[in-house]
Write a structure and sequence with these properties.
2 copies of one chain form a homodimer. The first copy, chain A, is mainly α. Chain A folds into 2 domains: 6-57, Arc Repressor Mutant, subunit A (Orthogonal Bundle), CATH 1.10.10; 75-184, Orthogonal Bundle (Tetracycline Repressor, domain 2), CATH 1.10.357.10. Chain A is built from 9 helices and no strands. In chain A, helix 2 crosses helix 3. The longest helix of chain A has 22 residues, at 120-141. The radius of gyration of chain A is 19 Å and the shape is elongated. Chain A starts with 12 loop residues before the first helix and ends with a helix. Chain A binds a DNA duplex through helix 1 and helix 3.
Chain lengths: 186, 186
DNA sequence: TGCGCTAATGCAAATATTTTGCGTTAAGGC
DNA sequence: GCCTTAACGCAAAATATTTGCATTAGCGCA
């Protein structure tokens, strides 16, 4: 959406509606089982007409994906521990914890399930890349060795996500082992 | 379902309905865009009443997941190339090709999206494990070294699936590099 | 500030879907 | 061959989605 459009500015009507709808979704997700999470229910809680939601998001899946992408966004840069390996280790452990939680799993599923917005998964991955890049930049600034971001994705992130989605969530020890594997290379 | 139930035997009415519905889903998936893939549409093509589908599967997502689990099942054991590494390499490349395809991505998404049947992702992973185990057993029979199945999941399978779902599908070279990494360990 | 323009929303009717109660049917056990 | 039971079809009811039209809020501009 270009910034010349009426509703896309902060404080505009469009933005208020979006905020209200997002809040309604989160509120409904927090309380009841997923059974009550329906477009009319969200609309009612957001003090909005269902048709508004359908027109803006198309269907429930897209709305959920939209909310999920925002919720999955990291709060801030990775914590600093003194070393690049420590930073990555701490970040990976926290990331694994978030993705392993039932909430995190739901977020990933919502993001993957939306058949429209097919670029949401990539955006989600780019958020992760950015976090890893930050750690990498820090390492470079201190002349520390740090693996390629894509390698970190393959060796650390991918197993965390894969196990969280398909198998059992990885334990903290398992995550540490993944980081160790990264440093054991070459 | 216990085997004492009436419809669960091959050739029974229940089985025929299931086969017809599954076929209808595949047929609809093959032709049109996903827009026409709806429960009434499947029911019509399967010569069945929508209520039958709703009662047996609950909703479209569960039906799609059910079909997807069957479709994702491997045809046979991994091809034999003469060495364990060769076997894994060939298997991984084919697996990556299947998961990278739009069909494969849809299957994985369908499996993850079904909120009921929460054990489908694990079943899907177990199919993969079984294939890897077969290669491992062969290796053991020949006194070849072969990594732990869980390690293969982390190093080879997870990146393939993660990249297929969230990023860009991995190239054949990338997959080979994953296998190499596995053998480079220790 | 006030005026006009546009996109977004509300409302309500039309359409499509999902759910449910009840009678019927098909398959297996005896 | 009869009995039992789970699955199915049918149709009505409930719910969700789509759509046309009128209204409104916000923005640019004078």
């Amino acid at each position: 959406m270009s910034s010349s459009q009426a509703g896309s500015r902060p404080g505009g009507r469009s933005a208020r509606v979006q905020a209200a709808v997002h809040a309604a979704v989160k509120s409904l997700q927090a309380e009841a089982g997923r059974g009550e999470l329906t477009v009319p229910a969200v609309a009612e809680r957001a003090k909005v007409t269902p048709s508004t939601i359908y027109r803006r998001w198309g269907d429930l899946a897209s709305l959920l994906a939209d909310v999920a992408v925002e919720r999955i966004r990291p709060d801030g840069p990775p914590a600093e521990t003194g070393s690049a390996k420590g930073d990555l280790s701490a970040w990976a452990e926290q990331y694994a914890e978030e993705m392993s939680s039932s909430v995190g799993q739901e977020l990933m599923r919502d993001i993957l399930a939306a058949r429209s917005q097919a670029d949401n998964p990539a955006r989600c991955c780019n958020l992760v890349r950015a976090q890893i890049d930050i750690i990498g930049e820090r390492a470079k600034a201190c002349n520390e060795v740090f693996p390629d971001t894509e390698t970190v994705l393959d060796v650390v992130v991918a197993p965390i996500v894969y196990r969280s989605l398909f198998v059992d969530p990885p334990s903290a020890e398992h995550v540490q082992a993944l980081v160790e594997r990264l440093w054991a290379e070459r």
